[in-house]
Predict the structure.
Amino acid sequence: MDNVNYDNNDETRKPDPIRREQLLQDERSDYEKQLEKVLQLSMQEYAKMQHFYENAEEKLLKEFNDEKNKREELFKPFLTKLTQLRRFDAENKTMYDILENIIEKYCLQQIEKNELDDETYDIIFAIIKNVRIDKTIFNLIQTIIVKK
């Protein structure tokens, strides 16, 4: 290794010259000063409202997703059994599709009730009775799917 002396003062940067700064007098009119204050207050109020709306939006999205997940978990076993039955019952494939679509829309909170004509209602509930499901799910489906 080379023995280099880094204490050479010739390469040290000299300090910057001292500057004097003087504040200028505010020569704006009272109207301009008031206008600037109002503008600053308006910007602060806008920032507060923006923060409030962002928090409210996050809260609503969280509540929506929590409810959606809860509903999907509730209907997951039923939809699995429905999918298994659909493979063997090609005759009622349309009814399985209608039932699955109604449940998906309910889980996504797009509907709370769905009115069906008497014939479709009877066919769908005949299919549901063939599926072994929990009584609470059956009662919930009865509240979701109603006759016209």
User: Anything to note?
Assistant: The chain has a mean pLDDT of 87. Residues 67-147 form one domain.
